[in-house]
Amino acid sequence: DGGITQSPKYLFRKEGQNVTLSCEQNLNHDAMYWYRQDPGQGLRLIYYSQIVNDFQKGDIAEGYSVSREKKESFPLTVTSAQKNPTAFYLCASRPRGRDSRNEQFFGPGTRLTVL
Amino acid sequence: SQQGEEDPQALSIQEGENATMNCSYKTSINNLQWYRQNSGRGLVHLILIRSNEREKHSGRLRVTLDTSKKSSSLLITASRAADTASYFCATDALTGANSKLTFGKGITLSVRP
Known about the structure:
heterodimer; A: seven-stranded mixed sheet; four-stranded antiparallel sheet; B: six-stranded mixed sheet
């Protein structure tokens, strides 16, 4: 899983509560990403950040928020506005540059269950 | 929206056989990548092929790209039980500095010992 850590591995929350998922990387990568994965599905992009203090919405940003105050950290908050938050959440990072090599490095994921 | 569509959705083979997985996409791309995911884990990058390349090898992996047909294939030769995993193709569209990947739904590969 490279130099990316996500915590916790499993997370349970009650309906109506906000919860924050942690993502930290020590790869000195500029770009970071949050994905959601549902059973039998591919990854869908929630938010991404190309540089500190800047981020953009992905395909399914509603009900989520992020911050990028430090290069190595990109926390994701799942708010009570997210109607179906139970899913597997994956964080990734990538060195930003003009080179067309664009592989992403993934963390081990956090499985969120809403009770 | 999901750009890549993998085929088949599931594949079961005997150890030692070759596994071929296909991916089709809809729009122009900068490059196409294949990733592997073991159950309950993060994704691991396998191989990247640029839009101006037609074939690439890495160990037991061979990937091809046909931009005229907007399709790619991943071949795993001499498969092993440890190759059992889900495989995803991901396309990097021509979005410049804000490049981002779009993933398909994945192929579940089972290799029987």
